[in-house]
Structure formats: C-alpha cells, structure tokens
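Lesson 9: reading folded outputs for more than one chain in a single document. The general rule is that every protein is listed as its sequence immediately followed by its structure tokens, and records are never interleaved. Here is the first one.
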Amino acid sequence: MQQQRWTHYRHSADDTKSLSHNAVWDVQEDSNHWIWVATFGGGLNRFDPRNGEFTHFRFDAEDNSSLSNDFVWTIYEDRKGRLWVGTNGGLNLFDRSTQTFTRYLPGQEIKSLFEDNAGTLWAGTYYGGVFKLDEKRNKFQLTRHQPGNPNSLATDTVNGMLEDPDGTLWVVGDGGGMSRIDGATGAVKRFQNDPKNSASISNNHPMNITRIQSGDFLLGNYTGGMNRFDPRTETFTRYLPDADNPHAISDDTVFAITEDDEGHIWLGTWRGGLNRYDIDSDRFTAYRHDPNDPSSIGDDYVQTLLVDAQQRLWVGTASAGLHRFFPELERFERYVHDPANPKSISHNHVYSLLEREDGKLWVGTEAGGLNLFDPVSGTFEHFMDSQNHLQTAILGILSDERDQLWLSTRNGLLRYNPVTNFAQRYDEGDGVQSREFIAGSQLKGRDGLLYFGGVGGLNFFQPKQVENNQFVPPVVITQLSVLHSQRQREILLETEDSITLNYDDQPFAIEFSALNFTRSELNRYRYKLEGLDSSWLSDEYHHRVVYHQINPGTYKFKVRGANNDGVWNAIPAYLNITIRPPWWLSAWAYLAYSLIAAILVLLYWRWRHRTLLAERERDVAQRSEQTKQEFLAKMSHEIRTPLSGMLGMSELLERTSLDFSQKHYVKSQISAGNSLLKIINDILEFSKIEANKLELMQKPFNLRRLLVDLVSLFEIETERRNIQLELSYPDDVPQNFLGDPVRLRQVLSNLVGNAVKFTEEGGVWIEVRCSRVGDSFADLNLEIKDSGIGIEKQKLQDVFGHFYQVDNNVQHSYGGTGLGLSISRQLIELMDGSMMLTSQYGVGTTASIELSLPLVEESETVKGEKLSIDSYRSRARVLIVEDNDINALALMHMLVDFGCNVEIVGDGLQAVQYLEINTVDLVFMDRHMPKMDGIEAVKRIRALPKLEYLPIVALTASVSLQDKAECLNAGMNEYLLKPLLREKTLRVLNKYCHHLQVREMVLSEDS
C-alpha cells in the first residue's frame, strides 16, 4: 500500500499567517484555485497553496463592510463566481476587488447554501427557515423618500425630472418641492417653499420641470403658477394669474411646459388653455376655448405638449383629443374621437406624446390605450396586445435603443414591441415603485437611462439590462385528489406516471407545478386530457384542474408550464389515467344486458306478431266497415232518389181535386214513403254511431214548442186509433235550452211513435218535469207513458239491442226495424244523459229520459217568421239542374205553385251554358250527374262574371260527409238531402229569394 502523506495546518499564536482558529466547519476551492476555510470563531480564511499562508477576514464592529460574524458555518461560490459566506451573524457576499463584504439576512444563523438550476440562491438557517435570494426580481433600480435621511428624495410622489449634462438629476414631486441629486456623490439638496422668502418656490407641488435655452429652469406648479429658477443664484421668480394684468398667466396650475427652436415657450394649463410666454417682454398670451370658434382650442384643460422635429406644436387635451397649433394663424386643428371612424383617435383624453424618427407620433390616451398618429394622412392606428395590457391609460412613453416602447400606466410599467405586438408588464414584484405612475413623469437620460416617476418613488434603469427570466421550468405532476364526498383521498404522483381510478372516484383533481421559484405566483400553465380535449386549455396561474364525469377508458393528461416571464417548457409532463367502468358497464353487466336484450327481442317479436295479426284483423274490419258504409251510402242514394220523386209527386197529387178515397190512398202512399225514409235514416244514424262519426250540434231551441209540434205530428194517427195523446209541460219548467234539437226530436219521435204504435186503447202521455234549476243549467226528466201491450220483464233489457223485436208475432203485427230504441239510447248518452225503460206486460210501458241542458234566453230561440205554405208567392227565377226527370218535375211543380219561373237542365255542362246567357235568382244543383257533375259545374259557374254570389243549393241523395264537404268547398251555399218536399223547398226559397216575395208573410213563432 502506497504511503499517504498529510500536511497539518493549525493555529499558532505566534504566526499571523497561520490558520486563525482550529475549529474548521467548511473548506471550499473557488474558480481561481484559492482555498477558503470557514472557522468557528476565527472568521474566514483564504489559503494560498503556493506559500502555505492564510489571509484572515474577521468581524470588525467599526467596519460595516467587514465579515458580519467570526463564527462561519459554510462557504459557497455561485455560477457567477461570487463567494457567499454563511455565519452566525447572517449572510455575506465577498467583493474580491475591494476585499470587502456586503451583508444580508442580519441576525440569522446561515447553516447551508445552495444554488438551484435557475440560479436562485437558497440559504438554510438554524430555526429561522429557508431564505431565497432571487436577483431576477430586482430588474429596476429605485430611489424614494427615506424619513430621516436628508440625502433621499423629499417625497415619494415624483411628478417630473430633468438631467444635466454632468449627470446631475433634478426631481420635482408633490409635497416635496424640487430636489437636486449630485450625479457623482448622490448628495441631495432640496428646494422648498419658504413663506418668508419670496425668492423661494411658490409652493411644494411642482408638476413638471424644463430647462430653456437661457439655462434657467421653468417649473409648472399645481395652484402655484409657473416658477422660473436661476441655477446660478438658486432663486425662483413666480408667475401667477392676475385679473388686473391681461398679460399674466391664465391659470395657476401648469401641467406642461416646452420650448421650440425659436425660443417660444409654451405652457399647458389645467383651466386656462394654451399660453405662450415671451421671455423678453415677460408677457403671456393665452389661447382659450371659444365654443363659437371651431378653430380655437377644443378644451381649456391641457395635459401635455410636444414640439416635433419640424417645430410643429402638438397639444394633448383632457377631453378634446389632439390638436396642432399654427402660431402664425393663431388657430388649432383638432383630431377627436369619432366612433364611426376606426382611424380616428381612440380616446379624447391625451396623456402622453412621443415622436418617432419617421415623424409619426405615439399618442397615449385614457381608456383607448396606445395610438400611432400619421400627421401626413391625419389618421390614427390603434394598438391592442393579446393580453389587453395596452387597454389602459398610457401616462408616459419612452423608447429605447431597440425601438421598444416603455409605457407607464396605472397598472405597472409596460415594455412593448410594436413589431411583435407583445407587451410585458412589470409591477412591484419586479422592483417597480408601485403600479401607479404619474402622467408626464418620464425622462430619457443622456446615456440611455430611462426614468419613470410614480406615487412610490422614482425608477431608473438601462433597458438592455432588464433581462427576462430565461430559465425553462421543469413541470411535475404532484398529486391527484379524489373529491367524492365518501371516497376522498390524496395520491402523491411525484414518481408515478400512471394511475388507475374506479368510475366512482370522480370528480378528481390533478395538481401540478412549474419548478420556477422566481415570482412563482406568475407561473402559467396549459394542459389537456388526451381522449377528452382536442386542444390545449389555458388556466393561466392556477395549478389545479378538476374533472367531472369522465367516461371509462384510457387517457393521458399533459401539462406545460411557463415561468414568471412567459418562457414555456416545450416538453410537457404527463400522467396516464385509466378509469375503470362502473359495475353497470362491466363484462358481467354486458352479458346480463345481452340476455335481457335477447329476452326483450323475443318478447318484442311475439308482441309484434300479435300486433300484426291484430292490425290485419283491424284492417279487415275497417275494410268491412268501409264497405258497409259505402254500401249504405249507395243504397241510401239509390233509394232516396226514386223516393224523392214519389213523395214529391204525392204531395203535388194531394193538392189536386180528389175524392175521399183518392185522398186516403195518397195519404197512405205519403205515410208509407215517410216510413221508408225513417227506416233509411235510422239505419244511417246507427251506422254513424257505430263508426263514431256522429257529431251533435249546439243551437238554441224551445223544448215546449218542439214537443207541441211532435204531438201535432201524431194527431192523425191517434185520432185514427181513437187513443189519447196528451202533453204535460208545467209553467215552472224552463223552455229555452242549448242543444241538438234535431237529435232530441228524433229520440222523442221514436219513443212517442213506439208508444202510439203499440197502444190499442187508452192513451199516450208525455210529461216534463224539472228536478233542479241552476244559474246556467237545468236537470230535466221527460217521461213517455202508454197503456199499450207492455214488455215482459225478462226481455226488458234486450229491447235496446240492435235490430231487436220482442217476438215475431209482434213484429208482424206492428212492424219496425228494431233500431229505434237502440239509436235513441245512444243519442241520449251522447248528450251526457240517460234513458230507462220500465214496463208491465199487458199494462203499459214508461220511457224516462234524464238530461242536463244549458239554459238560454228566450230571444235566442225565436227565429222570427213562420211562412204560410198556402199563401207564399215569389217572382224568383229558378234553375233546376237534375238528371232524374221525376225529381226535376216534382221540384219544378212545387216551385211553380209558389209562383216561380222555373227552368230545368239535365247536367252540369248545360247549367254552365245556360247561365252564361241567362240570369236566375236561385239554382238547385244535383251532386251526381253525367257529362259534368255538380262540383265541377259550381266551380265553373263561380268563375263566370257576376255569378260569384249566385245562391246555389246542393240537392242530393248522398249522405256522405265527404260529399257535403266537397259541395260546400266548391262554392255551394247549402247542402240538402232528398227528398225535397214543400216545406223544405219553401224555406230555401225564402232564405235566398225573400226579396222577391209578392205576398205578405204571416208572422208567428218558428218551430
């Protein structure tokens, strides 16, 4: 084994070049190959390996630049080659050139030192925590007022500044007067108001300072007018408004002062407009706003002034925009904001102006931000950055060597690059005096140094030395938190790149961090969850994101970070996330779903099979029902057509001179025809009820009058049978109701007809009672009682069946279809009523009807006129369009009996041709005819001149609702079913041709 040789260095009291103390805590070699030794009690030692000598650096209570304490714990050289020394009395930075120390963290015991990848120095202490020295934060130098220190600014509110060629800085501030700062020594001399000295400044609130060609300074004061300062004598001359002197300054507050090359001095006052000061005559000339002169200044409140390279004077006002002043013409040219003109100035309050090398002007306004004005075109270009930093009041504008703009605002200091349109904001965290700066308080010094004043002092800096933090921060995903109230937990992820969650581990939060410790609160983040998000999402300064209700599957969460100055890490951190499906989406669940689905499909198939069978049966039934309806309608039409002719001719025959036997035969013929018509109507009514196509009408009617007419209808039959027919209608029973009188008459006619038909002796009694009368309804009971043959008790309920007769013997004796009672009961039920039948065989039968009907006033049921068939005469010209000769002749003779002039044609085409050359008052039009039917004929007639209002009445044997709708839609006025007998004919004639009546009508109540 090779022998090792050690050299031992110890403290020797006799040797001043020896180690200062034997307790050694740290030994470091620096980049210059010096050996540094930390001793605990002997300070810091520097060892020279060449000669073996130690140089001692000890604490000296009389020297603030000496080591802060002799008990040294640690030594560290940073990447910039600076030596840091941690002691029991704080942290020390060694200056190799001066062999002195700068002290930090006094009173702290500095046990360890460390520099991270970003160049930030960390200091660990004994029970004092960890300290971070972040030099990137102090990007701007700052001077401000220090109470008790006469060599500091007199006030923190800096309104303006001026630099001498020798580096002397003059600063004016609110409440502090004027201060002179020696550029070499930093010594400060203050010039403040002395009430006893009229040669002192007029007050301590100067707003700005300007040097003029004579070498004197001009100060614009708040309420103190203008002050002229002679630096040689250090005296002030005051200029204040004087009402007796027309050549005095026009206002006591001066916001801006400038001088052109010809020695003209221009002042912007706060209420007195623009002033020109003539040094030789010591006089002021004011240019004020005149509301009647558009060439005057637009506002007496002047904020800023600028004389450009062409010696043009530009005036920024508080509410009237930007002005150019023409001194030789004493007129102003205004540039104001126009909402309709995007090339006008963005706001009328102008705070700051700066000329570019090309002659264009940067214009800072209130809320409208930054503008670039072109004096040649007179247009403004507006600037807006992506983060809206420029959308604020631009209080001051300066440019640096790289043509970047530095803008003071009420929300910090901005560095703006017009080429890239990027604005970076600096605030107190970067060393800015405060977020709020003062309008007009800016200066570009002789060596490119920029000055900005605000309410917290004065910032000054070299723009090229203001460097952004270029550290690219690594990003780590630190934690995932399950936020479900019953499953809350936190999962650390510093060493994990994947995680599996149950479906009910939602919502969950992911936390992450960019490892930049310089103003880490300004670190920004972008993230996305691949599989859910299609693009990067920006959450700015938040380092936590929450996800809700993510579908089961595999995802990759990625996050990128940026440091405080917006330097982004291009490589994202990621976390693979697997979300298990819930139990209802598991494989077993899908198997169960498949079984359930198979069962459902089977059940559906069976249901569909039964449904298809039912649909086929329903289709067959519907086709059968439709066939039946078509058959009934066809048979009704075929029967009604000859029946109409027969009844019409019978009525005509009845009016001729006949003997008794002949009249009896004719009446019997009419009775038989009406019976046949009733049977047809009952069958059709029954068919409508079965098909749910029956609709009840609602119209006023008089029930007592209806019953009286019904009794009169059966008088001939009861007289023939020698039986009684009586009506009992008490006076206290209401008479006027709202309902369907036609259907009610049909029901009552059926019941009374049956009672008369089955009664051989005795009588039929009709009785009306009222059980309750309300405000709008009445409950009625109608009874039809007879002394007829009666019905056996066991057969009583069967009589309401369709086509039911008690027995064949009765059928043969009395006739009937068996539909009457069935239809009657169904009609009453459609009216929300009830019908009962009580009977005793051999004694008689009672039919009872219970109805609740709405009440109406009596006047609503009165129609007005009742026409006398025998006396009615008319001069009407009537055209009958009918292909059945018998029906046409029957109707013609009826109309001729009423005095009408009648013409007959056999089809629709003949009707159109006739009406083209002839005039008529009324047309009866059959629906179904050869060549041209009634529908087409009416359409053509309506197209003829002056025939659009000609009354045309459909006369048809068809009971089809479709036929009725087609007739009315084609233009017919009314739809009448055959047979058309005398009474119905008369009513149609009177309705449409009452103006042609030649005989006076007999007035009575209409039934």
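And here is the second record, again sequence then tokens.
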Amino acid sequence: MLCGRPPFVGDPWTIISRVASERENPPPPRSVQPDVPRDLEACCLKALEKNPKVRYPNLQALADDLDHWLKGLPLLARPIGPVEQLQRWCRQNRLIASMGGTLALIFITAAIVGPLLAVRYQDLADIATRKAKDAVDARKLEKKAHEATERARELEKTARLATERSVIDSYTETGLTAHRNNDPREAILWFANAVAASENFPSREKQNRIRLQSWLSREKQNRIRLQSWLSQVATPVQAFDLAPAWKKTLSYHPSSRWLLSLTSNGECELLQISDGKRLPLPMDGPVSAATFSPDGKTLVMASGQEVVVFAFQDDGTDKSGTSHETHPSHRLHENVQTKELDRWTHPDAVNDFQFGADGQLLVVGGENTVQVRDVPKKAFQTEPIEVGSQVLSAAITPDGHRFAVRGFDQKVRVFSCAPDRTHSEPLLPVQPSTSFSNFPPLFVGNDLLVISDDYQSVCCWNIDKKEIVWTHKPTRVLSMAISPDETWIALGEDAEVVLLDTATGEPGKQRLKHSNLVNNLSFHPTSPLLLTASVDHTAHLFEVPSGKPVGPAILHCEAVHRCVWSPDGASFATVHWTGDLVRVWKPCDHRPEETLAAPSARGPFVRFNQQGDRWLPSGFDNGRDRTELEVFYLKLGRPVGPKLSGPGLISDADFISKSQLVVVVGGATREDARHGLPKQKLGDPGFVRFMNLETGEPVFEELKTPSQPIAVRTSPDGQTVVVLCHLGHLLLLDPATGKPCAEHQAFDGQPAVHGFVIRDRIRFSKRGDQFALWGCNALAELRKTDTGERVASIPHESGFIHDVQFSPDGKLVATCSSDHSLRLWDTTTGSSAGPPLAHSGWVFSAQFSQDGRRLLTASSDKQARIWDLATRTAILATREHGDQVFSVAFLPGEELFLASTRDGQITAWDSSLGKMIAPARQLPGMVYQLSLHGSSPRVIASGNISPMRVFDWNQWILEPDTELNREDVRLLGEIVSSQRVHEGGAATSLTSAEWIDRWKQFRAKHPDGPALKLSPRKSHPSD
C-alpha cells in the first residue's frame, strides 16, 4: 500500500523463496517511491526485518513507533542524533526555532566572523594607518617641495629684482657721471633708460610693498631727473624727413612758423613747424632761388629766368589792401594762401635773391648779371649790371643805397642802387674772396664792408674812403656771420670760431672750438648767443663774446651743414650735410630763473618773519661793513619799505613776531666799515634799535649795550628779544616797550669768536621755552626764555660750534662743531644723549626731519649725510662735492634736500638713495646758507655772494611727465640724445634712419607732448 506494490514481485514460488531467504532483505520503500518519509521507511523495514531479534517484538511496538512518527518523535526503528532531533523540534516550533536559529546564527556568525573581521579590520587599520602616514609624509614632502620651490622662486625673483634694481641704479649713476662730465644729453639718455628699466617692478605681493615703493621711488626720481636735465639741453620740437639733397638755402619765415628749404637741384619746400606738414608752393618746376620779405608778407621765387612775386597770406585775406583780381590765388594750406603780385623775366637764369632791410628793394643775381628791383613799385631800381660771373650771394646796406655780390669767380663787387647814382660802376675795386663756401660779404652799417679771402685776409673796407679800416689774418674761412647789433663778426676758421670786433678787427680772447670743420654760423636775433654747425656731427651754442658754451653739444647723426635761428629766437633749425633730415630745436634754458635781490641784500644768513612772506639779511661772518639793510617781499622780490639803518655798523637784525617791528643791533661807527673786525672795537658799547619796517623810523628810545651786540633773536611768541653781546653780556628785552627785563653774563664773560661760518648764535626751541647760545669757542649754553637763567653748559672738547638745532619736540639739541662731530644733548639736564655722530671734517650745519627721527648734516669733508637717530648711523651720504658743504636743507615733504658749497654750487638730492636729482646750480661765491620757510617753493641763497639770490626750486627740480609710459620715456631719451643704449650696455649714436623712426613713433603717440614742444610763440606783424 505504501509503495503501490508488494516488496517482492514475481511468480509465487519465487516470491516465497525470496521472502524466506535470510540473505535478501526487502527493498527500501523509498527506492520504489521516493516520496516516502524516511522515518516511515525505517518503521516498514524494521517490521519486515527477517531476523526476529531485530524486528519489532510485537505490534504494539510497531504502533508506538508509528505514533511517534506521526508526532515527530524519535523512532525505535530509527534512532536519531541531537542534530536531527533539533531539526524536528524546529519544524514543530518554527517561530521559536527561527528566532533561536537566527540568534544562534548571529552568535555563531559573530563568533566566527567577528575575530576574522577584527583581524581583517586590524589589518585594514594597519594598512590605513600606513597609508595615512604615507599620505602625511607625502604631503609633508609635497609641502617641503612646494616651500622649496617657492623659496627658489622668491630667491630667483629677489635675485632678478636685485639685478634689475642694480641695472636701474647703474643707469642712474652712469647718467650722473655723464652730468659730472658736462654731458647732460647723455645723462638724459641714461635716466630715460633707467625709467624704462623700472617696468618689471613687483606689483601684487603684499610682502613686496616696500620693494614696490622703492621701485616707484626710483622710477619717479629718474623721471624727475629726466625732466630737470631736459631743461639743460636743446630739444628737437620738429623734424622733416626729406629726400637727400644738398641744401642751398634754409631760412625761416619772419613769423618763425615756417621753414623755406631750397636744394641745389631745384627742390623747394615750405615746411610747417607746428605740425610737420610740407606745404605746396605756387611755382611749378625746379626753383633756383626763393626768399621771404623781412615782414613775411611777400614770397619771391625764381625758376630759370622767370621771377614771380607772391603775396603770402596766412588767413586767406590780402592785408595789403591791393586788389589782385587778374591773378588767381593759390591755397597752400587751409589757413595759408598766395596771390601773384608781380612777374618778370631776368636777362639770365636767376641764382640768388637778397631783400633790403625794409623789404622794398630786392637784389636779383643771375648767371652773369645782377639787378635791383623796387618790389612795391614793380619797377627796377637799376638796369641789368654785368658782373662777368655767376652771382652766388648778395648783401645790401641797411639804407638800401649799396649792395655787394660775390661771384663764382671768387670776387666781390660793390655797386650803388641809389636812385641818383650810376649803377654799373663798382664803388670799390673788385676784391678777391676765395672760399669754398658761398657766404656773402658783410656790411657793417652803411659805409663798411667786410670781405673774406681764404688764407690771405679778412678786410674791412670803408666804401666812401675806399680804404681798408682793419685786416685780420685768417686760416681757411668756411663760414662768416655778423651779430644783429653789428658788434661782432664770427669767422668759422677750420675747426674754430674767431670773434672779431667790427670796430677794430681785434679777435676776442676766446676761440670757440669744435673737433672738425665749422660749416655754418648764426647769431641769435636778440641775445648774445652764437649757433655753430660742424662736420664733427654737432651744433653748439656759445655766449658772445666770452665764448662760454651754453649747454652741451647738440649731437647729430651726420655732419651738420647749415644752422639758422628763428626770427623770434625761440628755436633754431639744423640740416645734415646730405640734406635728408631737417630738425627744429628748442634751445636749452641757459640762464635758470632766479631773482637778484637789491645790492643792499648782503649778508651770510637770512631771517624770515613769522608768516614767511618777508625776509631780511642777517648776521655777519668774519667781516662787518653794513650800515643799512632792507626788508624784502619773498614772492615779489622788492623792498617792503625804506632802508633801515642805525648809528653805526649793523651786526644783526630780526623781525618781531605779530608786529611791524624789526630789531636792529650793532655798534662802532660808519667810518669803521673800512676796517677789519679787530679794529671795530667790539668790546665798546653798542646799540639796540626797534624800528617800524614800513616807515623806517625808530619806535623806542635807542638802547645802549655794555659791549657791541653780535646777534639778536626774537622768541616765537614775540614776547622776548634776546641780544648777545661780544663780551657775553646777555640782554632780554620786552619788545612792547623796548626796555630790558633781565640781564645775564653768558660764557663766563669770555669774548665771542668770529671764525668761519658761525651762524645765528641764538636759536629758540620750537615751543619757545628755551633758547641756545653759541659762538664762544667750543661752548654752548641752554637758557630759559622767561628768565634767561642758564639750564646747562654744553661743551665740546675743542674747536668751536658752528650751528645749534633743537629737535621738533624740544627734547634734544644738536651742536655742530669743528671737532668733526655732531653731538646730541638732553635739553632738560644738558647731559649727553648718546655717542657723537662722527664726521671726517668740520660739521657746519644740521637740520632735523619733521618727525625728529633723522638728521641732515653738512660737513667740510664735501659730503652731506642723513643720520638715523635711533641707531646713530649714517643711512645716506652724498657723493663728494667739489668743495666743502656749508649748508643743507630739506625741501617740503623731505623726499629731497639741497646742499650748498664753498665754491658756490647748489645741488639737489633724493633723500632715499642719496643721488643727485637735478643739474647743479652755480653761484659766484660761497653759499653759507640755503633758507626756506614752510611750504614755500622759494629758496634764498646767502653767504659770500652779493647780492643774494632767490630762486624757485619747482622751476629747477621739475615735476615728472607722468603721461609718458616707460617705453615712450626711453624713446624721448634717445631722441634728445641722438643715442641709444645697445645690448652691450654702452651708448652708441643713432643713424638718421634710426632717429627719424624713433621720432615718428613718439610723435604718433604724442603729437602735442610738452617735452618736444615750443613755448608759446610771440605774435608777429605778418600774423
């Protein structure tokens, strides 16, 4: 039933046999029916067991086993192990078993996997730790590598910037060396390149701000230098790039607005100076001669034999009032036109024109004839005169009665053009005039004519007397010119220029020298200046008759063929021998603007009033000869009131603050002025006089002093006047009454010394609560202002004290001594405030900076220094001057300072690097003191110069042109100097092509740039 068939199959006997056989067991039910449960199969097989011992003992045992099977309990037929028992229990208690199994599984998993995971995680942790450590180490290495890279970059940047800074400083120093070698033009080149080299300064890093400021300071200073030195050289203001051709004529229009250029091959051009344009001329074909009338209203041109006179108008109108309806006008420019006025045919080809002084007569020189025409009348003054040679040049007397021509046959002929004279007969015998040049003979007045004959003579003829007035023996004469006032004649003799007195023919004391032949000469129309052009590639300006060079040589790219001054004297033009480059130049400022004070403004030192708008000369040095003095307006330069005087010689004077009073002190008699100090009896009584500076009258009774006063000073509040006398008598006066309020004995009665540059002798502190006295050997004193009582005596070891200065806060006082030191003292105790500031020469003067941290000193060792008072070290020293430095002064802002010297030189320096910032000024005498007040730009130079000088430092140290970028600055330097700095680091000359290329680049960017622009032009009658 369980399997659907019996255990044994077959025929009955076989079945019985198999059943009975003990060796064959019944087959397991599951082999027939796989779905039979295993326990049920075990019950069946136990029940069918052939061995009785193994079978169930009875049916009850079978029934119990079956019951157990149904209940899922263990069977007798098939004992089960704990695992299977557990399985059966789980099947019967599925929920509990599931939960228990799950928990067991979890516990088992945890028990097995936990340690494995722990081990694994420990391994992973170790790996992670190692990786983290490796990562940290890698980051550290990366950071170190980055830091090393940054340090390398910083070092490279520092080295590069240091190199660039070194280049800038080197260029600056080379420029200053060029200045010391009297070559400001090359100095400009180097300053411009120093500015251009400032391009790569650091601009982003915060830590490089100091470097940035240093860089900007260097650039600004070099821009200032460039601008200041530009005023010392001639600068080009216009250039014309022309086809190469020898220039026969180069002349200005009388208005100075145009240049007329005529070449030997007949090319004539009108060059407009304002914009560089070339204006077309009204005559076609080759032009053989051309010139303007003296008033500029007429232009005469010739082509072959044809001569045409044009009205030259610059506003499109005919100013002559004459109608020219039959002749069409020809417009040269939007504001310039010409009209034909006259036309005629000369007997032969015209070669030269020369107008008379009034523009009425015109000398026309041809191939063989010469004729004079009255231009306004359109008639000839003379008939054609045969000269037998081509006329190369001509001249006419100021009165228009005579003219002279120089021919190709090297001879000069003189004719009359007076209406009532025979014209064809020469007034003088024909004179030889051999020369390689075509310059005309020169009339001196109406009666004298100067003719040059190479290697033979330069003769001055009296035409009326037909005799030689004077003769000069020359070498080869290549050029000749006469000054506008007809005082001097300049001869270009080979490489020298000789100045001849037109009255006597005597040569000037000084020959003007070039290094090669002098091609051309031109006198300034109003100033005593001579312009020269030479084969040595330069033009020069010289003073006449001293021969002193004015500015440096004006470098050109080739030999200079011609030079000419503009009629207004504001510019001059030059042209190369090849004729390819015409340049118009603005001359240098050869006389810096300065005000000469009145002759009475004599004295070594200066005092300002409280407002700083008035000043007076003060003090005396080793001589005293003034009997009167004047007070001057600083801005206007004129005296404030009448001269102030006393009963004797004036020693010193000062303003009384907050009043119109001046206190004047002195002694002796007026007659003692011609004696030296030892004979002026300084130990005798002297005087103190209070005077109204506007009326010149005394306001109080004159006060007598025990010995002659040598110094006087008023307190800042105007409440006290201190008078120091020769024998140490010290008076404190009330300026409200003119009476003494205290009297003391200074320097223990020792007499004052009157040595070398002892300035002021009395100085008040800024607060006015103390004053210092000096001038008695090596001793100074500090005293209270209210009582005059001595606070302290300040001794130096030797020598004498030249100057004393209070610090701005009044806590320190500095003493300058001839013992080669400057010492600082505590004003409260009079004790030393640190080690002395040692110099290698006498210390003449000092000035504190506004913050009191620096001190500027002047010394006889020819240097000025700036000291850091915190460290007591010199942080800056100037290059040695040519002589002892007497005075120093910070300019407003303290970025710059001035120094003056024994040989009269005044120099300007930057306060950061200690390099010169502008060309030196030269005065004729020792400059003891440079005086400034507040923010005023005016500086007063005083000392052993008479009279004193007042100048505006803003007109000397010029503001930089910040509109130009660095490359443009470099171009400007190259244009002005006609040089460039090549790759090897040296200056080399530019070719004409290189120069004109730079000019065009610069002008394209800055057509109206002030650096290369003429000053405003004065009006002209032709305008």
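What the second record shows: Residues 201-213, 316-327, 1017-1023 have pLDDT under 50 and may be disordered.
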